[in-house]
Each structure stands twice: as structure tokens, then as C-alpha cells.
Amino acid sequence: MKIKYAINSHKFITFAVVLGLMAVYQNFTIAPWIYLALHGTYGMMWLIKDSLYPDRQWEQEVSWRTGLVVFVFLASYWVAPFILISSGVQPSAPLMAIAIATNLFGVFLHYGSDAQKYFTLKYKPGLITEGFFSRSRNPNYLGEILIYLGFALLTQHWIPLAILGVFVVVVFLPNMRKKEQSLARYPEFKAYKERSGLLLPKLFINKSSAQATEAVEVN
Question: What is the DSSP string of 51-89?
Fold first, then answer.
């Protein structure tokens, strides 16, 4: 099986899981509905993205045991809605606004940069240094972190934040380092690295870095 089958199954089921939790705990207040809209829609958009511009790394063939492990690992993200819905906690209006804004900004970065990467490499393979990638070398991972940070904020609990931290350390950072090693083969990568951040956008660059980048682009 492909590893994406485990991932897509988790995304597909998430809407039903959250709605089921709401029914079990009879919690149909505003916070659970907002969570359902955000996380449920995120899962649906993931499936649409996979059909339009799939990520090549998730096409890897794995055993069904590995696929099951991946699914269970991803299921830890359901701890956030469980805490929110079962506890009956009600976030303040400002906190809900911050959580929604954080999530939406994350969706913009994640799906926008993935689309740029897919279609750019499809027609022009090489190093991508423009658009979403002009100041951050991993805007897609930054977007995904913001998405789940938005979910965690709604719960007002440390456990979802800890789970997100585990994903960052175990999945995101190793993938980013692997990507760095792959991109290092391009001669213009050194200049690009100096004017961009690994994850967070590098908003200010020194004059020498800008001149070096310009020289590489001219050459």
C-alpha cells in the first residue's frame, strides 16, 4: 500500500470523528462547531489537493503494518477535539478569532506553497526561490504547523501543543534536513540559504547576501 492511503484515510475520517464526539458528549456549542468547520474542511481540502497536485513523498510503498502505525500516529491529532468537546471548555471570542486566523493563514501557506512547488517542478525542475519560497525554504511545513496550532489554541490545553511539538521534532525537522541536503547540490543554494529561513521567513537580508543572490541569478 502507499503511505498516502493511511494519511488520506485519517483526513477523510476526521470530520466524522469530530461530529461523533459532539454527539456522544452532546456538546453542540459554538467552539466544537468552529473546530468541526476548521479541521473537517482541512481534511476535505487535503483530499482535493491530493487529487490535483499530490505530494510525491506520500506515494512511497509501505507495508500495511507501517501504514497502520502512520494512521495511529496521525490519530493523536484527534486528542485536541476530544479535549475541547469532552471538557465543555468555551474559548473566549478573542481566542477563537486568533485560532481561526492562525488556521486560515496556515492553510494559505500550506496549500499555496504545495501548489507552487508541484506545478513549478512539473514544468521547470530545479531550485524554487520565488513566491512562497522567497523568504522561507519550508513554507508548507510552516503552514501545517500554524494549522494545528490553531486547533490547539481552541482547546486551551497543553497536550495538543505537546503533540504538535512531537510532530515537529519527529516528522517535520527530519524532512526539512533531508530537503536541505538534496537542495545543496544546486550551486545557487548557498546564496538562497543566506536570504531565506529554514522555517520562519527571513524578512531582512544583508546587502552582501542580496548582491550574491543577484550575481547568481544573472549568471
Answer: HHS--GGGG-B--HHHHHHHHHHHHGGGHHHHHHHHH--
SS3 helix, strand, coil % of the chain, rounded to 5?
Answer: 75, 0, 20
* Domain residue spans of the chain: 3-218
Cβ-contact 85, 32 below 8 angstroms: yes
Are the C-beta atoms of residues 186 and 133 closer than 8 Å to each other?
Answer: no
- Are 43 and 103 in contact, with CB atoms under 8 Å apart? no
CATH topology of domain 3-218: Four Helix Bundle (Hemerythrin (Met), subunit A) (1.20.120)
Answer for the pair 114, 49: CB distance below 8 angstroms, yes or no. yes
Number of neighbours of residue 210 by Cβ within 10 angstroms? 13
87-126 pLDDT tens trace: 999 999 999 999 999 999 999 999 999 999 999 999 999 9
pTM of structure: 0.91
